[in-house]
Structure formats: C-alpha cells, structure tokens
Amino acid sequence: MNWLVLVFFVSVLALAYAALNFYSVKKVDEGTRQMREIAASIREGAITFLNYEFRIIAMIALLVAVLMGVVVGWYVGVAFLIGATMSSLAAFVGMRIATYANVRVSNTARTTKKLGKTLKVAFQGGSVMGLCVGGFALLGLVIVYVVFGLLLKQLSLENVYLFRNFLGIEFSPFTMTISGYALGCSIVAMFFRVGGGIYTKAADMGADLVGKVEAGIPEDDPRNPATIADNVGDNVGDVAGLGSDLLESFVGAISSGVILAFHLFLSSEAKNGGMTPSLLQKMFLYPVVLAGLGLLACVIGIAYIIVKELSEDPHRELNMSTWVSAGLTVVLAGFASWFMFRGEDLSGVSFNLGTFSPWIASVLGIVSGVVIGLIAEYYTSYDYNPTKSIAGASIEGPALTITQGMSVGMRSTMAPVLVLGATVIAAYGAAGMYGIAMAAAGMLSFVSTTVTVDTYGPISDNAGGIAEMSKLDEEVRAITDKLDSVGNTTAAIGKGFAIGSAALAATSLMVAYIFSFSPPEVDPILDIINPMTLVGAMVGTALPYLFSGMLIESVTKAARKMVDEVRRQFKEKPGILDGTEKPDVSSCVSIASEGALQEMKLPSYIALAFPIVGGFVFGAYFVGGILIGSIMSAIMLALYTGNAGGAWDNAKKYIETGALNGHGKGGPVHAAAVVGDTVGDPLKDTVGPSLDILIKIMSTISLIAVAIFSKYNLFAWLSSLF
Amino acid sequence: MNWLVLVFFVSVLALAYAALNFYSVKKVDEGTRQMREIAASIREGAITFLNYEFRIIAMIALLVAVLMGVVVGWYVGVAFLIGATMSSLAAFVGMRIATYANVRVSNTARTTKKLGKTLKVAFQGGSVMGLCVGGFALLGLVIVYVVFGLLLKQLSLENVYLFRNFLGIEFSPFTMTISGYALGCSIVAMFFRVGGGIYTKAADMGADLVGKVEAGIPEDDPRNPATIADNVGDNVGDVAGLGSDLLESFVGAISSGVILAFHLFLSSEAKNGGMTPSLLQKMFLYPVVLAGLGLLACVIGIAYIIVKELSEDPHRELNMSTWVSAGLTVVLAGFASWFMFRGEDLSGVSFNLGTFSPWIASVLGIVSGVVIGLIAEYYTSYDYNPTKSIAGASIEGPALTITQGMSVGMRSTMAPVLVLGATVIAAYGAAGMYGIAMAAAGMLSFVSTTVTVDTYGPISDNAGGIAEMSKLDEEVRAITDKLDSVGNTTAAIGKGFAIGSAALAATSLMVAYIFSFSPPEVDPILDIINPMTLVGAMVGTALPYLFSGMLIESVTKAARKMVDEVRRQFKEKPGILDGTEKPDVSSCVSIASEGALQEMKLPSYIALAFPIVGGFVFGAYFVGGILIGSIMSAIMLALYTGNAGGAWDNAKKYIETGALNGHGKGGPVHAAAVVGDTVGDPLKDTVGPSLDILIKIMSTISLIAVAIFSKYNLFAWLSSLF
What we know:
The structure is a homodimer of 722-residue chains. The first copy, chain A, has 20 helices and 2 strands.
C-alpha cells in the first residue's frame, strides 16, 4: 500500500504543478484588441464543440455504465464513470489552456522578439495537458486500486478472484473493474479522436479548398470565414484528441499488465505452479508504480525546461526535456523493480532475467518508442530522401505526387514493425507475456512529457495563425513559423509513439482477452487455422479499411458543407473579400461541430458493433480473430496514412523553401504538391489517429463483454441443439 | 486410373481446340498496310519482352530445379521444370495469338461493320489463352500424377509417405512433387505478373504523362513514340500476366487439396481414425477430376459462343459463355462426386454431408467467385453510386477525386471478405479443411472460360488502339470502343475472381503448410499468441505494403525513363509532332522491357527472402505467422487497389459521357478525374495482381522449404545450446 500512497502523491503533485502552469500562462498578456478578439473566437468555438461532445459523451457513458452495472456489477459501472471523468477532465483542462496559451505565445513573440521566451510559454501551455494526462489517469487508477484493493481484503480470495453474478457470468471483480476504468477512458478518447479528427480536417480542407484554391487568399486569412474553425480544429483534434488518446493507451497498457498478471496467477494455481499471492500483488502494483515514477520524472523534466534559460534552438530544448524524463524514468523504475521483486519467489513466473525482468521489458518499450519515433521522422522530414522524392515527383504533376507519396507511406511500414517485433520477442524473453504489457507500459511511462511536447505543436500552430490574422510583423511570424515547423517534426514522432504504444497496448489487451476465457488449467491459445478464428481474422483485417474509408468520406462530406457555407458568404457578402464586410465565423464553427458529430457516429458504431455482434453470434474465438486481424491491419494503415500524410505535407513545405531547382510557391509543381498535402490531411490527422483508438477500444470492450458472450452466443446455442 | 485417362483426354481435347481456334483466327485478314505495320510492331515488341523474360526465367528455373533436386529429390526438380514449362507454354501461345487477334479484330470491324462478328474474333482469340491455361495445367498435372502414381505403386506405402533423404529431411515424395510442380507455375507467373505489370503501366503512364498532358495529343496517337509500347503492355500484363496468374491459382488450389488429403490421412493413421487408403486415393483424384470436368464444360461453353450467331450485346454473350461453363461444371462435378465417393467408408473424414460433401464445397466456391465478381462490378462500374461519387467529388478538384477514390476502395474490401468468410465456414462445415481447398478448386474449375472472357478485353483494347493509330472510321472505333468498355467490366469481375481464388488457394496452402510440419498424432494448430507467430504475423502484414510500395516506385521510375525518352525524341525530331518525321518506337519498347525486368527484381527477391530467411532464422512458426499476416494483408490491399483503380478509371469515363452536369472531356473536372485514373493505373494493374501472386508463391515456397527449415534453423540451434 505504501507504493500506492507514493503514486497518489505523485499524481497530486503533477496536477498541482499543472495548475501552477495554468495560472502562470494565463497571467501573460493577450496583446492587441484584435488578437484578443480572434483568440476569444477560437476559445468560444472550442467550448462550443466541447459542449456538444460532452452532452453526447454523458448520455452514452451513463447508458454504458448502467448496462455494465446491471449485467456485470455496480462497481464496474462506477469505475467506468471514473475513467470517463478523468479522461474528460484532462481533455477539458488541456484544451482550455491551449486556447489561452495560443494568443499569449503570439504576444510573447510580439513583445519580446525572443524565440526562447516564446517557446517557454508554448511549452508551459503544453505541459498543462501533459501533466493532466498523467495526473488524472493515475489519480483515477489509485482510486480504483484502493477501493477494490479494500474489497479484495474484505472478501476471501476465491470470491474476489472468480465471482459468479446473478446471470451466472463468471468474472474477477478486480480485473473487471480495472477494465471498466480503461473502457471509460477509451470511450472519451474515441469521441475526441474521431470527432475531433473529422472536425479539424473538415475545417482545414474546407478552408483550403475554397480559400487557397478558389479565392486565392492565403492560409489563416481573416477574410476566410472558415479560418477560425480551422484554428479551433487544431485544438480539438491535436490537443484534446491526442491527449485523450495517449491517456487511454497509458491506462490500457497498465490494465493489460494487471489482467495478465491475474490470469498467470490463476493458471499457476490450477497447475500448482508456485506463483505466490505476494508476487501477484507486486505484479499488480509494478505497472502503476512504473507509471507513477515516470510521472515524477516528467514533472522534473518539464520543470527543468520551464525553469532554465532557453536557447534559440527549440528542437534541442524539447529533446532535452524528453531525455531527462525518459532517463530518470529508467533509473527510478530500475530501483523500484529491485525493491519490489527482491526477496519474492520468482519460480512461478517466467521472469527469465530475475528481479529486473519487468524493468528490462519496460526499458525495451522506452527504447523502441524512441526508435519508432525516429523512423517516423526519417520518412516524413524533408531532410531525408523519402520526402524529397515526393517533392521531385511533383515535377511530373499531381498524379505522381500521389503515387510517390503512397509508395513512401507503404514502404515506411516495415521498419517500425520490425522494431515492434523485436521488442515483443525480447520483452517476452525477459518476462513472458507480462513482459509485453510492461513494454507497452514502459513506452508510455513518460507520457506526460510526450504529450507536453506534442501539445506545444498545435499551440504554436495556432499562435502563428493568430499572428497572421492580426497582421503582426514578419519577425513575429518568423518566430512562430520556426516553432511550428519544429512542431511538425515532434508531431510525426508523437504519431509514431501513439501508434507504437497503441500496438503494444492492444496486443497485450488481446492476449489478456484470450487468457480471460481460457480455462486456467490449459495454456491459452488462439489457433488461427480454426475456421471461426480464421474468418474472424479476415473480417478483422477488413474492418480498419472499412472504418478508414468511412472516415475519409465523413471528412469530405463535412468539408464540402463548409465549402458551401464559405461560398454562400462570399456570394452574399461580396465585401468580405475586399475587407469591407466581416465574415460570419460562428456559422462555420457550428457547421464543423455538427458535421463532425454527425459524421463520426456511423463509423464508430460500426466499429464497435463488429466485436460485440460477432461475439454474441459466433463466440469468443471469432472475436479473437477479429481482434488480431484488426490490430495488425490497423497498425499498418495507421503507419501508412500517418507517414504518407506527413511526407506529403513536408514535400510541399520543401518546395516552398525553393530547394527543388527553384520551383517555389505558386508554380505548377507547388500546386501538385498542394494536392498531395490535401489528400494527406484526412489520412494523417483523422484516419491514422482514429485507428489507434479503434484497436484499443475494440480490445477493451471485447475483454469486458467476453465474460458474457463466451457463455451466451448463438453459435454455441445452435451447436447445442444438434 | 480411369479418371486420370479421362482428364488426360480432356486436356488434349482442350489444347487441340485451342490450336484450331489459333489457326482460324490467324486465317482472318489483317487489313491495310498501315494496320499490318502497327500490328507487326506490337507483335515484335511483345516477342522482345518475352525473350528477355524467358532468358531470366530459364536461368532462375534451372537454378531452383537443381537446388531442389539436390536438397530434396530429383523428381521434385523435374516436376518443378514441368510446371515452369507448362506455364510458359500457356503464356507464350496465349500472348502470341493475342498479338495476331488484335489487328484482325480491328479489320473485322472495318470490313463487316458488325459488332457480333467482331466480337467473335476477339472471343476466339481470347479462347486460345483460356484453353491453354486449363489444358497445359492439367496435362502437366496428369504427367506428374502418372509418373509419381507409378512410383507410389512400386514403392511400399511407408517409404512413399514419409521418406528421409540423405540430409535427414523427412518428406512425402508424392506431395512434395506436386508442390514442386505448383512452384514451377508460380515462378513463371511471378515473372509475367510482376514484370508484365510494371511494363504495362510504365508504358501507359509514360505515354500519358508526356502525350496527353504535355504535348496535348490523344491516347493511341501514332505520333507518340510510347504508344506501341503501351499496346505491347496490354498483351504483356493483361494477357500473359493474367493467364499465368490464374493458371497458378488453379494448380495451387488442386495441389493444396492433395496435400491436405495426405496429411489428414497421416493424422488418421496416427490416431487409428479409420480413413482408408482407397478414400485417400479418391481425395487425391477428386480435385483433378473436378478440374478436368470443368475444362470439358469450358470447351463446350466456349464452342457454343464460337459456333452460334452472336447478338449485338457483347455483355450478354460473354455472360452466356460463363453460365454455360459454370452450370455444366456444377452438374458434371456432382456426378463425379457421387461416382467417386459412393461406397467409400467416410467415417474417417469430416465429410459432414456424405458423398456430396466435396462437391458442395466446390459449388460454394463457384458461387462465391461469381458473387465477389459482382461486388467488384458494383464498386467499379459507373452505373452505381460508388464510382459516381468519385466523379462528383472531382468537381472540387483532384485532391477530392483521390480521397473519394481511396474511400471507395477501402470500403469495398468488407463485402467480398464477408463472402469469402462465409464460404470458408460453409465449406469447412461441408468437408472440413479439405472443403476449403475444394472451394478454391471449385472457384477455379471453369478457369478456361474466365480467362477467355478476361483476355477478350485487352485484345479489344489493342484493336481499338490499332484502329485509332491507323485512322480508321469513327464507325469502326465505335465498335471497338463498345467491346473495350465491356472489357473493362469483365476485367473488374476477373480481378475479383483472381483475388478471391488467390485468397482461398493461399489459405488452403497455408493450412497445408501447418499440417506439413506438425506431428501427425496431434491436431495441427497455429497459435497466434505464440510470440514467434505473433511477430511473424506483424512482419507478414507489413510485407505486402513494402512490396506494393516498391512496385509503385518501380512503375514510376520506369515511366519516368519513358517520359525522358519521348521528350528527347520530340526535342531532337520536331517533325514528329507535325507528322513529317517518324518516331522511334523500338527504343521505347526496349526501355519498357529493360525497365520492367530491372525494376521487378528487388521487390520480388525481397518478398521471397522474407519467408525463406525468416524460416532458417526463426523457424516454422515464425513463417506461419508471416504467411497468415501477408495473406490477410494482401487480400485487403489487392481489393483496395483493384477497386479504387477501377473506380477511378470509370469515374473518368463517366465524366467523358457528359452525364455529370455536362462536365465533359477537356474541362477541369475531367482533368481532376484523369489524375485519379493515372494514380489508379499502377494500383489496379501492377500492385493488385502482383499481390495475388505474392501470397501464393510465398505459401508454395514455404510449403517446400519447411521440410528443411523446420529441422535446421538458427533459433532452434541456439535454443539447443542453452
């Protein structure tokens, strides 16, 4: 219990530090009246969307909580609500500060003309989101642990471990509660990622299509009524979406570790394998402690950057913060592993490297996260050949821009998969199945710094937009542009991290899923040449394609509504373009909000329906196939779309620098590259990130529902008739 | 043995009928001097490429044959060479006649002005390829059966069933020989599909990029030096490539049935399960007999169309030929199933529906092949909404053409997968694992008619090109255009068939793979949460992406070489464009040939290296993962690229009809659609078809090599050290 107290205090510390940063950012001046006005519109737009979302989330969350409460147990419903609340709080606070920080970043650039000082405000703004993700996630987990830890003590072991409720469904209250908590985080993340992803790209594509292409006005021009919606989108998709996504991976990784540990214990009991209850307790605790120490390391790593004098090289400063956090996490977690597992009888588990086994697995996760991020940078930065080749192909027109980008995106999938594969094998070698979950937990242990660095990007992007719209000096714009361009690189790395961690977390959730319906006395397997599993895997592999295809169409539909609205305004108020009339920005904001929430429903429901309906019709092995198929397929599609999209974006930027034989902005080569960039937009910012969530939420929901559908399904019932 | 005699005579009959059709097509007049000249250039270009290819194929085939002869057994090497020869013969004869038929089709249209008569020549030309595919494949199989059937009789059962060679490798000579035969067909198919696919699209894209886009001259304009290469490409990729691909699926499906039957027998022996040797013999024979009867049905179905008076509706006539062949196959195979299995003791196999079980499984395959074809038509024909939506999106410019096409392609994957899944479950229900192989064999049983109908398309396309280049009447062009547009639909259906059959064939080959290294006394499984298999599956899922990405780049590279050459000619001989100078077509033909063969190497070698190197390093379970991962992933990518590409092509054609609010040829909406079409070209004609081959050749090669690497691999050796 001492460890949990430590984790509790760390999470409170992180949240307190987030609050401190929140208020110190808010204290910064907002600048000119025009800047204030623009910032207020963006803030208002973001709040509008948040309100829309929270209304739906509240309804759905209550429904799911009641359903789980009735069918499984009340505490599962409660844990679910705690998860949903924590995730919502993190997203809410993080997005709130992002909409305060953006204008303050522009103003700092305007008043100080110093890159370092400007960077500090952006970073401090981002740190609020980062610290909230780590802080709220762990706070909720500690609550769940303590409440159900106490339950554990009060009830006898057997009752707690395998409880049979009034429907005859057998489950373990403790792990089921943890799963409920994870599902709460997932549901919220899905809304923010999918809804936010559609919002941001519908606004972006809509603004670009009619602004840049038809009216010939630059990006972030205040005459374009869709510009505010575009800037709102950055906050909605890239701040709230990314934060809740990583929060969900973080919780998913920890919970899969807990569930695996529990099933390893059950199977050891069934075989008299010698895993002690005390070791089980430690294995329950280790991922939470790892996360807690990681959070502590992040607080230090973040504070270091906020306190010190910053140089003019934002890339170096951001990296420094990551290295400090990651390095400290590695050291602290090593001590924890030693303290916790020394003296335990390890003969009942496959900790092949002794006391340090789980630690080594988590370090492997940390290393592979960094390597996958670097690979993403290689494929998407214009310093390297892949992106340059796309720029070069644009000389032959847009068709070759597209095919070359597809080619780069497709080829970019192999390297990160090899890294993930090596991590899985090595982590398994170190600590068995539990090791794979610990690798996922390790990759996410310094999530607060990752999120901080990632959130800094959209804040700077917004700051640039505000500078542009308020017609600030070139010099100011130069500072925000510099920050923004570094933000693009960190975004690519962050996406690699998001998909890498989602892949590991979903894989260990899937393994936990298979354990959870396999009888403890046999080794759990998922035989892929069992026809049910095989067909499930086929359907599962197609599912991310269906989901992605639907999302792309959703974005296009919403973008076209936006285009129609902007055209209508330009037509009805011809004064907008010559600056004599004001565009109506709020109508564009509502169109994006309503469009996003309207369009996200069908793909999300379909994605969730497949494992649930599949489970109740064909049973647990079919769903096992769906999970493995969709995890594999979604990893590839996410890597492909993320890297192709990033590379298209930067190929365009490369041409804009004039480095490609002087083909610059405005020429046909640039026009071809803009087509690539537009195609890449929904791929990298809607489809890719939504796929991360898809596989995690499918795994989590299956993990909960399998307790029911492994017992009650149509196929089993029909088979019993013959 | 009587059955084999029947099959032998059917294959001879089919080949004789092919010869008859060859000469009766050749008898038709070639038309004007200009037509003769153009046709001769195309023919010469095709022969040039064929010669290049055969030289490489011969070298590699000999190398592989010797290697297999030494490491496994001489007869395996011999069977491999028989397979390579049969496949090469079919491709050679089929492509030869296609280059005779094209000009004769144009001339028939010119002299008769009758669609029906023109159709007949095109169909008869296509039938040569179709009949050669069925005839040569079966002839070779009968030879292998008879030779090793005799061996079977001479040696005692035990020796034949599990033979241990001088390297200590255990295998069954009979099934290994069948696998060797299948691999021979695969290798040739890979060269024709991958090399031909790169050739055809490099020429097409190259010709379009510089012709239509830069010089503003129409497609198939004789002033464009790349036009002949473009027409050669249709023969190389769509005739020889498609024929050898389906030949390979056909043989793969049959051989996987044979191998599965054998392993079911071994496992029944080990468990005293009661499967009689006589039943095994029947299960060996049934797929060959099914194929033989299917070929007979095809001869009848093809002859029916050639003999009867044809209407002006080519679509109806082509469908008629398919229905006759498929219907007759169903009836004949039903009788065969009854004759063969009645009186056998079926208690040892899971023939859950009695004597007719294998027949029902094959009928399921036939039905699902047709349904998958219809789904492909729905997604790619402009009579339906998906393609219309792409045309509609083009109004907003090329970026939305691309995203909408991607969306359609991605969404189009689910429906065929559900059909395939239902087929797998139903076929398994009817006849166990053997049923899945029989479904694949059923889908391919009337392959000769499928190939005939598919080959008619490129012949008509070429005929149109020749008509255009020889400046024949509008009326003639109208006839060939009509034939060509029907050809586009049949091509989409044919692609659905190709990927559907490849999926089933590869799946049953994979199951055979797992059986082949599992000890007969246990039920073979492939546990996907075994870390080796899991990581193999991850790598396998990425492999088709890597392969596809490399292929797309290969096409672009070769196309850009072509563009450079055309630009050079236009610059050095300015008279070409005003018609006073002749373009040098042969240099474009050699650039395409050399480019294709150069560029196909790396992706092909990498694809083959993964299972082989993976096997010798990590062992059989890792490769099992690679196979399942790449089969699943390749099915999706092939459906996605095939359908997106087809839909882009037809969206452009739809706009050309003027049906989209009068946006016609030449406007910006059409230009946007042309971008989509160009992007789709390498996807649908290079990547998609090559993926079919990829999964089959990987499965076949693993099936052979596993005998060695399941015994000798680095991982096992290292494990034995500790």
